Every structure is written in structure tokens, then in C-alpha cells.
Design the sequence.
């Protein structure tokens, strides 16, 4: 494994070192002592594994197309902006605006996430992005979602406790949101329908959660032990007559 010590390094210098390592053919890179540096793995392509020890800064993996990034701690905001392919695994919690316009790939988060997760997330051609968070989420989860899958688990929350904030799925016009636990319609966008899951949904959940559990050392059977709600758009033009409500 090729190691880079990020201690006290300016983010541009650190990113140049990472790109130079990738360009030279390194496939397995560890970044040590990361402390808030921006733009790590942004725009990187190909089959490269990057392990980050420490807390990376904003815009991690923006426009990324292929690599796998494994963060051993928490992460900040704007992760996977317009990401095209690859995988991000976060062993802690993450911030706001995750997966903005995400086109493909996967993001697996063990802990909580902030506001506007999955905003404008979309599928492109045969691609379907997936974000799975193991904790709770703030307001506007799945805002303007146009494609892909969002899964929220609330693993450390009481069984009847709400695990997601207000304005759930506001402006949603594609894709599917799965919430493990209760969902009240009054906290959803007007265009969102809350439904029970069926056998097909169970297959979808098991497919996604099997890999998630393997990445984060969790038990699939335990994760699947509580019922899920499925949220899908019931209007294809949620703002046909009104810009906002």
C-alpha cells in the first residue's frame, strides 16, 4: 500500500500528491493524518482504492468515476457531488448535501447524516446511485430526487422513534426512498406517497444492504429485522402549478 502523510499539508498539495500516485499506477493508497483537506478524490477515475485516516473536508469524491474511498472516521459536507461511479464507505457520520446530483455509484455511511441528503440525485441511462445511512437524517432527505435509491436505517434509535426530519422527499419526482421505521405523511412533500413494502422491495433491500453490512461489519438479519416504509413520487410534475408550497 502506498502511504501519504497528510499532516499539515495544504489541500492543493495533498491532492497533487494523490493524483501523482494514481498517475504513476498506484492502486491502493492510504492517506494518514487527514484533517479537513478539501476535494480529496475529486474527479479521480479508474479502479483505485483510497483509505482515509482522519476527517476529510468538503467536496470529497465530487465528479468521481470509479475509485473506492474508505473513510475510517467522520466526513463533512457535499460528498459525492455529481459522482458518476465508484463507492464511498464512511465508518462514522457525515454532513449536509450528500450526493448532490449523484449519477451513479454507492455511498455507505454507518452513522448519522445532515440536511438535504440525496438532493437532485438521479440515474443516468443504466446507472442508479445508492446512498445508505445507518443513523438518522435531517430535513429535506431526498429533496428533488429524480432517480436512484435512498435507504435510512436508524440503527441506534428506539423502534418507534422518527429517524428522519421534515420535508421528506420535497419535490421528489423519481427514485425510491426506504425508511426503516415509522413515517408520518405530514412530514413528507405533497408529491410523496408512503407505502408498505412488498416481496420485491425486500429483494431490493436485501441486495443493497448485504453489501452495506459487509462493508461496515453489520449483521444483515438484524438490520432487516424491522419493517420498512417505501416512499415514491405520486406526481410526475410536483410544481406544475406552483413553484413552492
Sequence:
Amino acid at each position: 500500500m502506498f502511504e501519504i502523510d497528510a499532516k499539515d499539508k495544504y489541500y492543493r498539495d495533498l491532492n497533487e500528491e494523490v493524483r501523482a500516485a494514481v498517475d504513476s499506477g498506484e492502486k491502493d493508497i492510504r492517506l494518514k493524518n487527514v484533517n479537513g483537506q478539501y476535494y480529496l478524490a475529486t474527479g479521480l477515475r479508474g479502479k483505485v482504492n483510497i483509505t482515509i485516516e482522519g476527517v476529510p473536508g468538503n467536496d470529497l469524491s465530487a465528479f468521481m468515476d470509479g475509485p473506492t474511498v474508505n473513510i475510517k472516521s467522520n466526513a463533512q459536507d457535499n460528498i459525492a457531488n455529481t459522482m458518476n461511479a465508484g463507492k464511498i464507505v464512511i465508518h462514522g457520520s457525515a454532513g449536509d448535501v450528500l450526493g448532490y446530483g449523484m449519477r451513479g455509484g454507492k455511498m455507505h455511511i454507518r452513522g448519522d447524516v445532515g440536511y438535504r441528503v440525496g438532493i437532485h440525485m438521479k440515474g443516468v441511462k443504466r446507472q442508479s446511485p445508492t446512498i445508505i445511512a445507518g443513523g438518522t437524517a435531517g430535513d429535506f432527505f431526498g429533496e428533488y430526487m429524480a432517480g436512484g435509491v435512498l435507504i435510512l436505517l436508524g440503527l441506534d434509535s428506539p423502534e418507534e422513534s422518527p429517524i428522519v426530519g421534515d420535508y421528506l422527499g420535497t419535490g421528489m419526482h423519481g427514485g425510491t426512498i426506504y425508511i426503516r421505521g415509522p413515517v408520518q405523511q405530514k412530514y413528507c412533500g405533497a408529491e410523496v406517497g408512503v407505502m408498505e413494502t412488498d416481496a420485491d422491495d425486500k429483494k431490493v433491500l436485501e441486495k443493497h444492504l448485504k453489501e452495506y453490512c459487509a462493508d461496515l461489519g453489520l449483521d444483515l438479519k438484524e438490520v432487516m429485522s424491522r419493517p420498512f416504509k417505501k416512499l415514491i413520487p405520486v406526481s410526475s410534475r410536483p410544481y406544475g402549478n406552483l413553484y413552492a408550497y
In short: The mean pLDDT is 94. The first strand starts at residue 2 and ends at 5. The radius of gyration is 18 Å. Residues 93-233 form a domain with the Pectate Lyase C-like fold (CATH 2.160.20.60).
